[in-house]
Amino acid sequence: MADITQKAQMQSKAGTQGAQYTPPAAGKKPTAAYVLMLIGGIIIFLAAVAVLVGGLAAISYVNGLQNGTTTIGNTSLTLNATTRALISGSAGKIYAAGGVGLVTGVILIALALMVRGSSDLKKIRNLSIAAIVVSVISYFGGAGLMVGMALGIIGGVLGLLYKG
Q1: Which of 103, 116, 111, 118 has the alpha carbon at shortest distance from 152?
Q2: Model confidence over 79-104: pLDDT tens digits?
Q3: Structural domain boundaries of the chain?
């Protein structure tokens, strides 16, 4: 790497003209894009876990209650077969939202790590576009309370703007 940089510097001092490839500095990476995408992915993942755990705990609690009128705190809840069916039917939606959040969170974390490990501008650009798309898809999984989605999109845009 150092030989390529030294050779490019020597050619420019010698007065050669034309387009020359100068690789980015060894330590220069799209750090801001990486950090925002990583934090966004973690928030999306943790929010999905919270949706799954909280939602399924609530469904389990309600399914354990007896039919009739139950008082929870100051709220009176009437449970009959229809209400129980509606509550149990929402389990599929909770699984779907939590699953989308888990998958998009993990993918965004992986994309952030790949951006961090790459010095190829074209690869960083493609990974950043993928991060933006995954962040938008995370909307259907709760989007990490919208904060995770926003951080993923901003990180992706910063990756697109990265010049090396």
Answers
A1: 111
A2: 666 766 776 677 778 888 888 999 99
A3: 30-161
